[in-house]
Design a protein that fits this description.
- This protein is an alpha/beta fold.
- Helices cover 33% and strands 20% of the residues.
- α2 crosses α3 and α3 (127-138) packs across α4 (154-162).
- The longest helix is centred in the middle third of the chain and has 20 residues, at 93-112.
- The protein is globular, with a radius of gyration of 16 Å.
- Its EC number is 3.1.2.22.
- GO terms for molecular function: carboxylic ester hydrolase activity; palmitoyl-(protein) hydrolase activity.
- It catalyses: S-hexadecanoyl-L-cysteinyl-[protein] + H2O = L-cysteinyl-[protein] + hexadecanoate + H(+).
C-alpha cells in the first residue's frame, strides 16, 4: 500500500490548569482547523473537575478533496461525494491509516512523558470522530474513552466490513452524540453504526441525540460529554 506523504502541522497544545494527570486529543472535521474545536475545549476547561487535563488538538493535512472538485481542504482522508456504504476499495485507506498513525504517535509521546493510556481520551467531530474511533479500537493500548460527535465513524464501518481482526478493543467506552437536524451526516447513519457496535462482545457504548441540533456542537451535548469525561477519568 502506498504511503501518504501529506504534511501534518504541529498540534495545538493547551496545558493543564493544575497538575497534569490526563490528556485528551480533540480532532476536527472536514474543512475545519484546530480553531473550530477550541470552543469545545474552552467550554470543558470551565469545568473545575477537568482542570488537570492537557488538551492536544491535532491538525489534519490540507488535501485536494474529491467531494469539493479537488479544492484544497483540510481533511484526515479524501471523500468522494457521500460516504454511504463505503467499502475498502472505494475508501482512502492510505490516508486513513496515515492519520491514525499520526494520532497514535502523539499518544505515544504522551505515554513517554508518563501519562498512561488509560488516562488518555479521544474526542472527534465529524470526520475527526472517524479517526478517533479508528485509533481507539486498533491501537495496542486501551485508552480511557472516546467522544464521537456528528460522525459516520467510517473507520468502524470499514473495520467491521473488511478488517474485523483489526479491532482489538471492543469494550472501550464510547459516548456517541448526534443532532436530530444534522443534514450533513443524517442521524440514521450514526445510529446504524451504534447499533452494530452494540453487538460487539463487551460493548460499552452510549447513544445521545439532541433536538434542534444540526451538524455542529451544542451546549447540552458538550455538557453531557463533560460528565462522561469526568466519569471516565474519575475526576
Amino acid at each position: 500500500m502506498a504511503q501518504s506523504r501529506d504534511y501534518y502541522p504541529e498540534p495545538v497544545v493547551v496545558e493543564a490548569q493544575g497538575e497534569h494527570t490526563a490528556t485528551i486529543f480533540v480532532m476536527h472535521g472536514v474543512g475545519q482547523t484546530t480553531d473550530d474545536m477550541m470552543a469545545a475545549v474552552e467550554a470543558w476547561r470551565q469545568c473545575r473537575e477537568l482542570q488537570s487535563i492537557k488538551w492536544i488538538l491535532p491538525q489534519s493535512p490540507t488535501i485536494a478533496l474529491t467531494a469539493d472538485f479537488g479544492k484544497p481542504t483540510t481533511a484526515w482522508y479524501d471523500v468522494t461525494d457521500v460516504e454511504v456504504d463505503e467499502t475498502r476499495s472505494s475508501t482512502d485507506m492510505t490516508r486513513i491509516l496515515a492519520s491514525q498513525r499520526h494520532v497514535q504517535s502523539l499518544i505515544e509521546a504522551e505515554q513517554a512523558q508518563g501519562i498512561p493510556a488509560q488516562r488518555v481520551m479521544l474526542v472527534g467531530f465529524s470526520q475527526g470522530g472517524a479517526i478517533a474511533a479508528g485509533v481507539a479500537t486498533t491501537m495496542r493500548d486501551r485508552v480511557g474513552g472516546v467522544v464521537i460527535m456528528s460522525s459516520r465513524m467510517t473507520t468502524i464501518k470499514i473495520a467491521c466490513q473488511t478488517l474485523p481482526d483489526s479491532i482489538r478493543h471492543k469494550d472501550i467506552c464510547f459516548f456517541i452524540a448526534h443532532g436530530i437536524d444534522d443534514r450533513v451526516v443524517p442521524v440514521t447513519e450514526a445510529k446504524a453504526c451504534f447499533d452494530s457496535m452494540m453487538e460487539w462482545e463487551g460493548a460499552n457504548v452510549s447513544w445521545h441525540v439532541y433536538p434542534d441540533l444540526g451538524h455542529e456542537m451544542g451546549a447540552d451535548e458538550l455538557e453531557d460529554a463533560c460528565e462522561f469525561i469526568r466519569e471516565r477519568l474519575d475526576l
